[in-house]
């Protein structure tokens, strides 16, 4: 791919393997390249709000006349998606409530269908850009291996009518590759829309000090510079949420991507003290007490994630409040573990249609976010968007417009000034 894109080239980075770098200067906010998804799938939860084919967000989408579960902009989008939608159309009706493939299973089914349509010589040649996409099947722990085995079983159960399957080992490899290289497509407020595979983007290595950001226009990925780049600079993105301290970030990288980061920030840990700020007290807090509270915080986060789709919202909010009270005895409000639970509490308040609660948590989150995240972070712009829209709903127009303008300043760099999210936001502010 990069041979046809001016200003980019592949190279072998020591210790990282295949990589990308720029061969000409790129300015802040400049588009390095854009690429369509090899394969993608819309989340169940967004059906009816977004077109299954182009991911356009609008009212009045037309539903599939057969299953009544997929929605499209028009006949053109519906016909364009039929080769993929037919994998699920009749099966969803036949299985009814027993239809339960994961999003990863749905994406793998579409990858296999595309391989069949294109009559490729082997599974890896196009899908994996001649082996460029990473697989760590040999490193997968028992829990993930069991999940992959369950996904393979679901793939056979729900898609056997339309697909020819490779052997079991190749399927496990494909699931591992999708897990390592799949991208979550998100909207302007970072809500999950779907999952996609971009073999070209999979060439880009990770750094906790990224030089570019990946955003989405429909189902295509766009890569833009988040700082000025000079010839020879490596193209680097962040694979993970950068809010957390070094040990947490590298634990996540090891668990999901099977490596640790050696960027300058990970070597120096220069921001860890700020991220783990403790509450000011007359007598210094003992290191052991801080360590114990970090362990408690990590456990609370795991328990909340495990309960997120099981417990009712009122109980989830109570979990957040209890953990915040416990951690607040030791941690400052700007501590990243406090911010994590505040963010979860804000999300629960939004779901419960409690704007006052959501605003209260959002205002506590925003200032530390601006300090702890890199410049032009989507996490910061999405928080400005949420608060701005909440303020508008509460007739606090000046505060709302101020927040939305700050969101736009970030989005114009990260998404580009002509992105429809930016255009929509500009229109939204004008109408208000």
From TrEMBL:
Transmembrane segments: none annotated. GO terms for cellular component: nucleus. GO terms for biological process: methylation. The keyword Transit peptide does not apply. Signal peptide: none annotated. It is an enzyme of class 2 (transferase). It catalyses: L-lysyl(4)-[histone H3] + 3 S-adenosyl-L-methionine = N(6),N(6),N(6)-trimethyl-L-lysyl(4)-[histone H3] + 3 S-adenosyl-L-homocysteine + 3 H(+). Residues 51-89 form the MYND-type domain. InterPro entries: H3K4_H4K5_MeTrfase (IPR050869), SET_dom (IPR001214), SET_dom_sf (IPR046341), TPR-like_helical_dom_sf (IPR011990), Znf_MYND (IPR002893). The keyword Coiled coil does not apply. It comes from the Eukaryota. GO terms for molecular function: histone H3K4 trimethyltransferase activity; zinc ion binding. Residues 6-240 form the SET domain. Keywords: Metal-binding, Methyltransferase, S-adenosyl-L-methionine, Transferase, Zinc, Zinc-finger. Its EC number is 2.1.1.354. This is [histone H3]-lysine(4) N-trimethyltransferase. It comes from Scophthalmus maximus. The lineage of its organism: Eukaryota, Metazoa, Chordata, Craniata, Vertebrata.
